[in-house]
Amino acid sequence: MEGPARSENGFMLLIVMFAIFLLTLGLMLAMPVWQTQIQRELEVELIFRGEQYVEAVRVFQTKNPGNFPSSFDELLEEKFIRRLYPDPMAEEGEWNVILLYDRTPAQSQRGARSTRAARRRGTAGAQPQQQQAQAPQRILIAPQSALDAIENARIIGVVSSSDQQSIRIHNEQTSYDKWLFFYGQDPEKMPEIVYYGQEKKDE
């Protein structure tokens, strides 16, 4: 009686092992498809979040002509953006920030002083229709953590800090750290990019 029982138990063990093998194989085959789908969804989210920051800067410019936000908190506190969206492609969620870099500090300071004076007079943003976005020729890209160290920071947008290759092509770019989202952007013309730390070498 023991012989047939052992044989049956051995047969059942083989069936279980074969089922586990098939399940493992199926998961291995499905994993790349699943990962690709997740990445595609994150790409859609990246575009949405990037555009939220662009819109926030646009509204800020409408309310404060000639001036730019110096921090993300400024956009949030003045309700130009609903919440501070993290970078969906970066593990820590920190963006690289796109800053205006085609005006001299003296010009920027004069613009900031005139804007503050207009705010005191209550005339800031009185004629927003006359403010039109111009595509900057040079931009500065800096880590979000470096914003406090940048004098007279003028935020115009964001870009992912991830250099991972993308599935889709966005504005002819195939890595997330080249998917630029900034106010005044011309999708057909890439501006000259200066990276944080590099600008000191150029001086």
- Distance separating the two termini: 92 Å
Number of spatially distinct domains: 1
- Beta-strand percentage? 15-25%
Instruction: List low-confidence stretches.
Output: 104-131
Helix content: 40-55%
- Roughly what is the average pLDDT, rounded to an integer? 81
N-to-C SSE string, H for helix and E for strand: HHEHEEEEEEH
Supply the helix-strand structural class: alpha+beta
Number of helices: 4
Please characterize this protein's 3D structure.
- With 203 residues, this protein is an alpha+beta fold.
- The protein has one domain (2-202).
- Helix content is 44%, strand content 16%.
- The protein has a five-stranded mixed sheet.
- A hairpin with a 2-residue loop joins strand 4 (165-170) and strand 5.
- The longest helix has 62 residues, at 2-63.
- The radius of gyration is 26 Å and the shape is elongated.
- Mean pLDDT is 81; it is low at 104-131.
What features would you highlight for this structure?
203 residues, alpha+beta, 5-stranded mixed β-sheet, 44% helix
Produce a short descriptive summary.
The strands form 2 sheets. A 5-stranded mixed β-sheet has the order 6-3-1-2-7. A two-stranded antiparallel ribbon has the order 4-5. The protein has 4 helices and 7 strands, in the order H-H-E-H-E-E-E-E-E-E-H. It is an alpha+beta fold and 203 residues long.
